[in-house]
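Subject: Protein record for review, amino acid sequence with backbone structure tokens
Why sent: The fold of this protein is of interest and is recorded here as tokens.
Notation: Tokens come from a learned vocabulary of local backbone shapes, not from coordinates.
Attached in line: The record itself begins immediately under this heading.
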Amino acid sequence: MTFDPLDPDYQIDPYPHFEALRAEPAVWVEPLNAWFVGRYRDVRRMAMDTKTFSNRRFSEISKGEFDYAPGVDQLVATDPPRHTRLRKLAAAAFRPGRVRAMEEALTEITHGYLDPLVERGGTFDFHQDLASRVPIHAITRMLGVPHEDGPTFRRWTADVLSAANRHTMAPAELARLRTSVDEVRAYFTDVVARKRRTPGDDMISDWMQAREGQDALTDDEVLALAILLLVGGDSTTAHLLSNTVATLWEHPEQLEEVRRDRSLIGRLIEESLRYEPPVQTVFWTTTRDVDLDGVTLKAEDAVIGVWSSANRDPEYFPEPDRFDIHRDSGGHQAFGFGPHFCLGAGLARSEARIVLEAVFDRLPNLKPAGGDPVEWVPSFWIRGPRALPVVA
């Protein structure tokens, strides 16, 4: 099997293709003008070696001309020491008290969406009616913006994340993407200006007030962080939930174990992150010529590390294509590794735990509605279903 991340078959099911990827130190993908790397040891080493594998072109490689904050230092697109500065200031909004308050709010939000589903019974779409709604509602609360704007946020997020596939998009799709990027930037430019005048009890206001000595975030840096939280916390968390449920249905014996013993939910989430990570890749640029087991990567080459391939590397995870909630899933790279480890990882884990516990409690007979197989979002960057029909 050849390795082509733009192949529709790959984007439906990338996992059979990873053996071909890991058979070579790096595979050149001409349409994307980038090297793809999938061995666990290499992806992890690159994540740690920011002097050689830079994140500075992350936005350029992943989004190209559809970058929502061009010319601004972004958390995902900087290297130490600029990244270290941004991360310290950004972490102010993830203080323990804020996270605890969000966990309480997440419980309320989750049950608010579950109530009508439980009462109505019958068939509904787990992904669209629950998994996608809880994260975006939580994000609107964290950012201090109207919950009614949530559906628009979901559209913006989906479009921004689709930019990695811009090379294969039709003109109408590119025009829609351009519109979404312009709209999300204009929206948060206005929000940041308003909160600069009148701060509130929200993350944007926290970022505006964050200080590291005499240093503070600029309005443009706050804008970039706000959009990053939206894009990074919406679709990805929704797909974590839906990927987990879809995978459990393929392993009914483990589903029954978790239903009987809720203490296994933490292990379930970690194994799901390893087995079906919502974010599949990371984007680097080499700063110098590098020899990778006989393959020469030139300075300024684009390098795409494939976390999902690393998570299925048999050199690190025995029988990696077997889903097993009892395995030690520690060391998976679903949230990245090293200096760029996801700042919101703890919140995402909490959100997944809260929603799954509530689903197991209130929908004990939940099962797939049957019919067509899961339709996956066409992307080599994001992994998740478009829909997940279920019967309560």
